[in-house]
Amino acid sequence: MKNPQFLNTILIIIGSSMLAYHLISGDENVIIQVGGIILLMLGAYRASVYWSQHKDDHLDDQD
User: What are the TM regions of this chain, as residue ranges (predicted)?
Assistant: First the structure.
């Protein structure tokens, strides 16, 4: 995949949607809640790793 940020964004959106559904519906389905938390945290972790790897890329372009 050429843009890994797209996958991170999708994971965060799906995870937060699952959590919002759990809160709105009042359903007692714990699997939806746990799955939403896992996807949200996985997306946030992947995004922070990507950002930390590419935080100094602008310095390489100046050389």
Answer: 7-24, 30-49
pLDDT in tens, 25-39: 887 889 999 999 999
Q: Closest Cα to residue 9, out of 44, 38, 34?
A: 44
| CA 29/CA 19 separation, integer angstroms | 11
Give residue 13's domain range: 4-55
Whether 63 is covered by a domain: the verdict is no
Domain presence at residue 36:
yes
Q: Is residue 60 part of a domain?
A: no
pTM: 0.73
Q: Exposed, middle or buried by CB within 10 Å (0-12, 13-18, 19+), for 15?
A: buried
